[in-house]
Amino acid sequence: xxxxxxIFQTQTKKRWTRVKWTSRIIGIVIVFLxxxxxxxxxxxxxxxxxxxxxxxxxxKAILNPNNKFSLSSVQNKKYKGFKDFPEKxxxxxxxxxxxxxxxxxxxxxxxxxxxxxxxSLPDLIKNADKLNTVLP
Length: 136
What we know:
By secondary structure, the protein is mostly helical. It has helices at residues 14-43, 52-63, 74-103, 120-126; strands at 110-112, 133-135.
């Protein structure tokens, strides 16, 4: 009778040792990640990028051409133009909204009239020329 081996059968234990060591390494990594997770939950802290806000402030100071200590360059002047445009636009829009809202005569100026309150009728009579709506 022929002794034929199965497809993945070998005479050496090399494959089995590789499987054991791979599973051990994966197990150690999983245990380490669980330890770090439990430690983070116990301390109730969120990991964050270090000094990211400080770095942003430094970059803004470097790119600001109005700063006397920054070097004046073509790119810096272009950046100033791009930076100033939205600020100017926002100011112009807010001024336009203010002037339009002040010029509107169709604003609703209303008052409440309550017949059971004795002070309501004299106030209504006194301010009637300033009102365009009375709510009962």
